[in-house]
């Protein structure tokens, strides 16, 4: 028989009462532990951060083309007409 034992080291952290209240308000179900909730929040944060990096990458790539399209002599001539 093989046993898969997970030994979890625990530690105590200090949280403001307002933060604990906020955590309680966003629990997905009543018996969800703060550990589960924080893990879930980390996953969401990482996904958002990854998407934001992608958006920033696209924005930087598009900047040169947008400058080329907007800053051209032909358009400036029409603006002065």
Briefly summarize what is shown.
With 81 residues, the protein is mainly α.
Q: For the terminal residues, how far apart are their CA atoms?
A: 86 Å
Report the biggest beta sheet as strand number plus sense, adding barrel if it closes.
Answer: none
Principal-axes geometry comes out as: elongated
Rg, alpha carbons: 25 Å
Indicate how many domains the architecture comprises. Answer: 1
Number of strands: 0
Determine the fraction of residues in helical runs and give it as a percent range.
55-70%
Secondary-structure map:
Blueprint: H1 17-26, H2 34-70, H3 73-80
Question: What attributes does this structure have?
Answer:
single chain, 81 residues, mainly alpha, elongated
How does this structure look, described?
With 81 residues, this protein is mostly helical. It has one domain (17-73). It has 3 helices and no strands. It has helices at residues 17-26, 34-70, 73-80. The termini are far apart. The model has no long low-confidence stretch (mean pLDDT 82).
